[in-house]
Amino acid sequence: MYCVRCGVSLEDGVNECPLCGTPVWNPENKKKNPHYNPSLYPVETAGGKYTLLSLLTAAMAIVSLGCLIACFSYYGQAAWSAYVVFSCLLFYVVVILPAWFGRYYPIVFLPVSFAAAAGYLLFICLYTRGKWFLSFAFPLVGIIFIFTYFGYWLAKLDLAPRIKLRLLGLYLILLGAATMMIEFFMHITFSLPMFNWSLITAVLFGALGLFLFIASFIKPLRRAMYRKMFI
Amino acid sequence: MRLDNAALIFPAIRSNRWVNTFRLSLELTEEVDPALLQQAVDDLMPRFPSFYQRLRTGFFWYYLEEVEAPPKVQPEYAYPLTHMSKKEQKTCCFRVLYFEKRIAVEFFHVLTDGTGGLIFLKNLAARYLTLKYGIRIPEEDGIVSLEEEPREIELKDAFQRCSGKFAMSRKEATAYHLRGRFDVSGAMHLITGLVETSALVHAAKECGATVTAFLAAVMMDTIAEMQNGHVRKKRQKPVKITVPVNLREIFHTETFRNFALVLNVGVDPRLTDYTIPELCREYKNQMALEAVPEKMAARIAANVIPQQVLGMRIAPLFLKNMTLRAIYNRVGERKGCINISNLGRVRLPAEMQDRITRFDFMIGVQISYPNNCSVASYGNLTSINFIRNIYETELERRFFTRLVKMGIPVRIESSEV
Lengths: 231, 417
Description:
The complex is a heterodimer. Chain A is mostly helical. Chain A contains 7 helices and 1 strand. Among the domains of chain A are: about 1-40, no CATH class; about 160-230. Chain A is about 65% helix and about 0% strand. In chain A, α2 runs antiparallel to α3 and α4 (about 135-155) runs antiparallel to α5. Chain A is flat. The two termini of chain A are about 55 Å apart. Chain B folds into 2 domains: about 5-150, Chloramphenicol acetyltransferase-like domain (Chloramphenicol Acetyltransferase, 2-Layer Sandwich), CATH 3.30.559.10; about 170-415, Nonribosomal peptide synthetase, condensation domain (Chloramphenicol Acetyltransferase). Chain B has helices at about 10-15, 35-45, 85-90, 115-135, 150-155, 160, 195-205, 210-230, 245-250, 275-290, 295-310, 310-315, 315-330, 350-355, 395-405, and strands at about 20-30, 55, 60-65, 75, 95-100, 100-110, 190-195, 240-245, 260-265, 340-345, 355-365, 370-380, 380-390, 410-415. In chain B, the strands form 3 sheets. Chain B has a 7-stranded mixed β-sheet. In chain B, strands 4-5-6-1-11 form a 5-stranded mixed β-sheet, with helices on one face. In chain B, strands 2-3 form a two-stranded antiparallel sheet. In chain B, α8 (about 210-230) crosses α10 (about 275-290) and α8 (about 210-230) packs across α15 (about 395-405). The mean pLDDT of chain B is about 90. Chains A and B meet through β1 and α7 of A and β7, α13, α15 and β14 of B. β1 (about 10) of chain A pairs parallel with β14 of chain B.
């Protein structure tokens, strides 16, 4: 028996060509694979995951709802239960939502996660009548987000090693600068002393970044580093 | 037992869904008797101690520990190369399966490579046939005497001995990658093409090449054609085939453990549209240039020297794993489009030949390649096994159709219903 499309010879008893899927007309089809036993193939392994996720979703919904009802019946308003609800929401968006998908898509999930974190902090700030969101929490989340995102792309992009090393150097220098920015925001929000610890981190990151940046221009050094440390 | 140099990478890059395994199987003329097969597996244990090992996790490294009892033979229970879980790796790093007339052994790659695995399977079959028919099988063509003690050279990590003093850079251009819709069930689908060895050798000779070179050339041509369909000529990437080289022949050693190294052989399709004889020539030339003892020693050194760096040795296991994974992602799989692992012609003593009808060799898919190809010939039958974890069969279809068009009859089998 031959496949009319591929021209390959097929076994007796197959319904279609395994290569191109062209149906094979065969009146004596036995429908049994003589080589393997596909009836014993394990069932889809992903099934367990979805059940677990559904259960977790349901559990979190029940907990949040229960807390809200308890809180309302006691205080007549959402007092402490608001924290529970928003924490559940944050956890859901950051951990469980991405797990529904087959793989983690950082390009979508990272911004969503950070937005959720910012939203959560905004809620706490408003709820406690604090004045630290715009001047501290928001920039902090923003800075961490930007560095995570660019760090991801830096690791992911297929660039020449020397360019990558150069970018990594710049990244570290900027990271050092960012720590100073964070301390600056702390200073204006909480009136803490200016540039206390961040100078150390900035100098450390800056020196390391500068070293990598310069090393990226010197071929022998780069080679030696790669051989010794796989950088 | 310490892991050999090549085996270091496999536990480091394994995951809950993927592990580097390969499978060797043979077909007998009669149905397999499980009790006798179990007896054969038990009998081989003292002679092949490097196989009866399980993988353990230490604080600084993974290590192999001898199993207390030989593994139980099992009926084939799922698709070929079913995922070997971490739990199973902790029990024994290989499994023996049987199905009707077939005996199959699936190895975790930490134990051995294809050649070592083949020696084990041959001896297993020899022992089984001796138990079943009472025949005496001479010690030739890889069959060893079970009364003897294992030789030291068989158990040693040959990489350490053959490593050069200078390491060669692993730098290479990144190759084109095949893609497809990933099968979420994790099943590996198999398509086997059975070809007459004489027809294949004849076709290869017409191109002035060996069978491996010919198959690699056909594969390169197939992948280049697929790339033409997806990518503009200007933006195309090199088409490269990863070919494992058996170092035992180059360094004259008889270790049973891992002793192979991969070479990436390929062409840049932007230069010209290569014909198959031209691709064969490219393969031959590149192999002649690379597969020489000096360069191989330097390639081994690139893997062995980092292993000896003090900083690497005292680092805890999870740091080692992270480093190895990062290196593997950078220089491991990205450099080739697909593996072609040719075990070559399997030779057996005359006493076994009329009781064994067929040999098959399969390697599992890599982490990021969806396809893999492995070849073994026995007698006048060459089986070309394509394994994949995607739904599409485009590569297989184009490859086998090409062989058919060149006048080589192909018979197709698959693991599907």
